[in-house]
Specification:
Helix content is 39%, strand content 18%. By secondary structure, the protein is an alpha/beta fold. It folds into three domains: 51 residues, no CATH class; 131 residues; 72 residues, Hypothetical Protein Ychn, Chain: A (3-Layer(aba) Sandwich), CATH 3.40.1260. It has a six-stranded mixed beta sheet, with helices on one face. Strands 10-9-11 form a three-stranded mixed beta sheet, with helices on one face. It has a two-stranded parallel ribbon with strand order 1-2. The longest helix has 23 residues.
Length: 276
């Protein structure tokens, strides 16, 4: 908390509300040392309603951890963090302009709105390092310059040093922001145990065909089988019994009658054969 106050506290703060009396005293003492004139803005929160709910903080945090950010116009951003860089994609979404508005004007308006929100999200999410912005293509150079200038102005108040390059030949803006600590996502989240951080799992259909290949392989080494049991994730079991029933028929051509068991404890990409 002290580092946050030291780095971010400014006249833009109208109030600092604290729901712990002990922490309140610490913060008052700290601010008295670094910015005494701001002490009166520190308020002890005593209402029964949880402070995060009272000021919709939890809702905003949840939004800041999602990749998609909606714009008021109906367009949206998609923010993806990788080990090497951060990619931010801008889409018009539902926004198609009003009346007889030219497509170029609609695109420029969306991009102008987007760069303001991008600057906000960069600070909110504590994004740093190389950041690549894929805005909607604009044909008019003047519009590109207008959007680029708007981005630099939106970032002007950022306390972390930033550098914005002009649009390149691919219509991308590449910028850098000094990384002083981990991003919000890296601080508050951990890799998903289910997908192991990949963000994707194989579809039930794909797993069905992998099971078929395994059945073909096993048929060469398994003899005199009276009953075969296949344990899979429930979604895969449903696919085998419905949309991919022809795959099940092929599996049974190799292994005979197969009893399918859907088990939620089984990872969607895993399956087990048992023979009697």
């Amino acid at each position: 908390i002290q580092r946050l106050l030291r780095d971010q506290l400014s006249d833009e703060f109208t109030a600092i509300r604290v729901d712990s009396e002990e922490e309140y005293q610490r913060i008052v003492e700290f601010i008295n040392r670094i910015q005494p004139r701001m002490m009166k803005r520190v308020k002890l929160y005593t209402r029964d309603e949880p402070i995060l709910e009272a000021y919709d903080v939890q809702e905003e945090v949840d939004k800041a951890l999602k990749p998609r950010v909606w714009l008021k116009s109906g367009g949206y951003l998609v923010i993806n963090q990788t080990e090497a860089l951060v990619a931010i994609d801008v889409n018009t979404g539902k926004f198609v302009g009003k009346g007889n508005a030219r497509l170029e004007d609609t695109i420029t308006k969306t991009n102008m709105e987007a760069v303001d929100e991008i600057a906000r999200q960069i600070r909110l999410r504590d994004l740093g390092g190389i950041i690549v912005l894929d805005l909607i293509d604009m044909e008019d150079r003047r519009n590109r310059n207008k959007v680029s200038q708007a981005l630099q102005e939106a970032l002007a108040g950022d306390k972390s040093p930033t550098k914005v390059l002009s649009f390149n030949d691919f219509g991308l803006i590449i910028m850098t922001r000094k990384r002083v600590k981990q991003s919000l996502e890296r601080t508050m989240c951990e890799p998903c145990d289910y997908c192991e951080g990949a963000g994707w799992v194989k579809s039930a259909q794909t797993v069905c065909y992998e099971i078929l290949e395994e059945a073909r392989r096993l048929s060469k080494s398994v003899d005199d089988v009276r009953q075969t049991t296949l344990r899979v994730h429930p979604d895969v079991a449903k696919a085998l019994n419905e949309a991919e029933s022809q795959v099940l028929e092929e599996i049974e051509e190799y292994l005979g009658n197969v009893d399918i068991t859907g088990d939620k404890s089984v990872h969607q990409e895993q399956f087990d054969f048992a023979f009697i």
